[in-house]
Specification:
Blueprint lengths: L16 H16 L5 E8 L2 E12 L4 E2 L6 E2 L4 H14 L20 E5 L6 E4 L6 H6 L13 H8 L12 H9 L16 H13 L3 H13 L20 E4 L2 E4 L19 E2 L1 H12 L3 E2 L2 E2 L3 H7 L10 H4 L13 E3 L4 E3 L14 E5 L3 E6 L4 E6 L2 E2 L6 H12 L3
Parallel strand pairs: 7-17
Antiparallel strand pairs: 1-2, 1-16, 2-3, 4-9, 5-6, 7-8, 10-11, 12-13, 13-14, 14-15, 15-16
Length: about 400
């Protein structure tokens, strides 16, 4: 077990401690009002932690505080880790971004795409171009989520039992085959739709590497980087450090069920199955900030990290311009593109909150987030455990308050 620690004073690396205090107080109010259980914030510059705050409870009922070694379900922050795993295979020549997914997963060989209609009256046609590995990494494959409730294909996912993105009782292989039996929402490569694509990518990694996804990631990423607590399950030793997961109600927050983490899960979700501590997230951010190398361990070439953190959306558009519903309606998508597993700021003047050009990162459904600002040599993470019914609109405020703390 390793814990994140503050290494320098904010002023030593061009940060204003008073402004960082305002950021913490803003979030602490949400805790005091009963809208969040507790949180951790960490800001680093040049790889050195300059601000680290814990506040509130990791378990409200038990009165257990948030600590620097608290474990969090990071959900969709798993996706960048899975993307790094795939890019390692690309560098080794075992996989290509342009490989048709069907080369590795034959169930996708006869893919069809939605034309019109609903239910039994739905019309589909064969795809013009197959789903490729790059489409999985950029969420341009035409796959979707069952919970959107805004397209006829979403309804087919629900009818197939994929409401929670996993086929009940199945493993990753069986679930991905269930995805393959359903039509695509649009022609691959033409639009952006946040989806189950990274689960498919995780299965590609398993087939190409010959190893289960959790084993490959542990051996090739977590171990070499010293991400000592991260993984797809929680051990008996770690159990007391795992934060309780909460949902919000009209009267406050209450515990809700999360991923099954005790014992190795049958379904290994490359989209959202991991847990991690702040130390683990910091190590992963540092790998990316340093363009593929950390403490003498190189996992990716600098050019590969540059490719990962560049915009790959059609025509260089942002998420709002090419996003299918509901993505195109989200104002936070203005000026933000998407790379290979991470979002990336392509037009700071259009973003909802102050962001440096090229800033990249991703968030999880339990209100966890990280980003790397290469222009300012800065990383930021925010960890809590709340699955809200509606967005807290917290991330834009975090970005604004952090921006105010930068003095150079």
């Amino acid at each position: 077990m390793a814990q994140l620690r503050q290494e320098v004073e904010p002023s030593e690396v061009g940060l204003d401690a008073r402004a960082l205090g305002r950021l913490d107080r803003h979030v602490a109010r949400l805790v005091d009002e009963g809208r969040l259980p507790g949180f951790l914030t960490a800001v680093s510059r040049g790889g050195r932690v300059a601000h680290l705050t814990t506040y509130g409870r990791r378990d409200v009922t038990a009165g257990l505080p948030v600590e620097t070694d608290t474990l969090y379900r990071i959900y969709s922050m798993t996706k960048p880790v899975t993307s790094v795993a795939a890019l390692m295979l690309v560098e080794e020549g075992a996989l290509s971004l342009d490989d048709p997914v069907a080369e590795h997963l034959p169930a996708f060989a006869e893919q069809r795409v939605y034309v019109d209609g609903t239910g039994a009256g739905m019309r589909t046609r064969p795809v013009e171009d197959p789903i490729r590995v790059r489409h999985l990494m950029t969420h341009t494959a035409g796959l979707t989520f069952a919970f959107y409730h805004c397209h006829p294909v979403d309804a087919l996912y629900r009818e197939a039992g994929l409401e929670s993105a996993v086929l009940p009782g199945s493993d990753l292989a069986g679930t991905v085959e269930a995805y393959a039996r359903l039509p695509l929402q649009f022609e691959p490569g033409t639009q952006w739709n946040y989806s189950v694509a990274t689960n498919v990518l995780g299965r590609v990694i398993e087939v190409v590497s010959g190893k289960p996804l959790d084993v490959f990631i542990a051996e090739r990423i977590l171990g070499p980087l010293g991400m000592t607590d991260a993984g797809f399950q929680v051990t008996d030793e770690q159990a007391g450090r795992l934060a309780e997961l909460y949902g919000d109600t009209d009267s406050g927050i209450e515990p809700i069920a999360g991923l099954p983490l005790f014992g190795r899960p049958r379904f290994l979700s490359g989209s959202g199955g991991m847990v991690a501590t702040a130390h683990d997230v910091h190590r992963f951010m540092e790998l990316l900030r340093r363009r593929g190398e950390l403490d003498g361990v190189r996992l990716l070439a600098p050019e590969t990290v540059d490719l990962m953190t560049s915009n790959h959306l059609p025509g260089g558009a942002d998420l709002r311009e090419v996003g299918s519903r509901p993505a195109h309606d989200e104002p936070g998508n203005d000026g933000v593109g998407f790379g290979l597993g991470v979002s990336v700021v392509i037009d700071p003047e259009r973003t909802q909150a102050p962001s440096g050009l090229g800033t990249y990162g991703w968030s999880g459904v339990a209100t966890t987030t990280f980003w790397v600002d290469p222009g300012r040599d800065l990383t930021f993470q925010f960890l809590t455990q709340l699955r809200p019914r509606k967005s807290l609109k917290l991330y834009p405020e975090l970005k604004r308050l952090l921006h105010e703390a930068i003095t150079d």
